[in-house]
Design a protein that fits this description.
Layout lengths: L2 E7 L3 H12 L4 E5 L5 H5 L2 H18 L15 H26 L2 E4 L2 E7 L2 E6 L2 E10 L3 E3 L9 E3 L12 E5 L3 H12 L3 E6 L10 H13 L3 E4 L2 E6 L2 E5 L5 E5 L2 E4 L3 E3 L14 H17 L9 E3 L9
Parallel strand pairs: 1-2, 1-6, 2-3, 6-17, 8-15, 9-10, 9-15, 10-11
Antiparallel strand pairs: 4-5, 5-6, 7-16, 12-13, 13-14
Helix pairs in contact: 1-4, 3-4, 3-5
Length: 317
């Protein structure tokens, strides 16, 4: 029976970074990933958004280049070429991660993981048709988009914006966090009329008020409608209806409705209940607290080293 010092579930930024660090520290490490290395951040989130937004900003700069003494004739945006460049960037980074894992000595297993339990001090994790035995288990299963239901709306996740093969004429983005504003900038730069609908009193409500105010001014100046203290109520016919802070119903153009309302933990079907866990948020806080107690109290009961990581992809709200 092959026994690992550490098994990592999830190949996103938290998972692959931890696996590489553990292996370089001398631990025999396995990384289980059911889809693609890099997780949401590399494949659908941070990297694609930055690549596409950069292309869009270069296009806007080219349109305004004449005032800087640079004359450009017939400037146009080739969406297909931009998408190809984005995919090339993702591929290069993904290959880099795979090489780093291999050089560190991490065994990468492409399979869906399911925690079966713990016996004789070892965690048992099913990886496809095989069982992986490990002394320690690190759970880095990432996150999924929060469910958003608007009557009459065909909703597109914000991560899918950077795979659109054609630019919509108008868009309503539900959520004024970092990911929503980034998508708004991208679409607006390519000529799409964008409205951002945010329930809170201000956009990026978790950030400093001065930052929020600066972003609001900057985005409005570029032509993006910022609708705070508003709630989407229904959609249809190329528009979305929403209520403002006074409860008055209003309408905004929306050929596409984008969900940027946030993300939630993803561990359904993972089998955490088989090792005595119910919720990775609350259980992880409890485990961290008990670790601190164990360090300060000689004879405290040793607990399994289980952590959740990569709950939300970096720089995304």
């Amino acid at each position: 029976m092959d026994i690992f010092d550490l098994a990592v579930i999830g190949g996103g930024p938290a998972g692959y970074s931890a696996a590489i660090t553990a292996a370089k520290s001398g631990l025999k490490t396995a990384l289980i990933e059911k889809s693609e290395l890099g997780g949401v951040c590399l494949n659908r989130g941070c990297i694609p958004s930055k690549a596409m937004l950069h292309s869009a900003k270069i296009f806007r700069q080219a349109l305004a280049s004449e005032k800087f003494g640079v004359t450009s004739e017939k400037v146009s945006f080739n969406l297909g070429a931009a998408l190809a460049h984005k995919n090339d960037v993702i591929c290069q980074l993904k290959c880099g991660i795979a090489d780093s894992l291999e050089c560190a000595g991490v065994k990468v297993i492409k399979a869906k993981a399911h925690i079966k339990g713990r016996t004789d001090g070892l965690f048992i994790t099913a990886a496809g048709e095989n069982d992986i035995y490990s002394k320690n288990l690190l759970i880095c299963t990432g996150s999924r988009p929060k469910q958003l239901e608007i009557p009459g709306a065909d909703i597109t996740d914000v991560s899918d914006v950077y795979n659109l093969g054609a630019m919509p004429r108008s868009a309503a983005i539900i959520g004024g966090g970092a990911s929503g504003l980034e998508a708004a900038e991208y679409l607006n730069a390519l000529g799409c009329k964008v409205s951002v609908i945010e329930q809170a009193e201000r956009i990026v409500p978790t950030m400093d008020k001065d930052i929020s105010a600066f972003l609001r001014r900057s985005l409005k100046k570029s032509g993006i409608d910022i609708l705070t203290s508003c709630r989407a109520v229904s959609a249809g016919g190329g528009s979305i209806k929403y209520t403002d802070m006074r409860g008055k119903e209003k309408t905004a153009e929306a050929d596409i409705i984008i969900n940027a309302s946030g993300r939630a933990e993803r561990y359904d079907g993972l089998g955490i209940e088989n090792i005595g866990l119910e919720n990775l948020n609350t259980d992880n806080r409890r485990l961290r607290r008990r670790r601190r107690e164990r360090k300060s109290h000689v004879g405290s009961r040793r607990i399994p080293r289980i952590d959740s990581g990569d709950k939300q992809y970096s720089r995304q709200g």
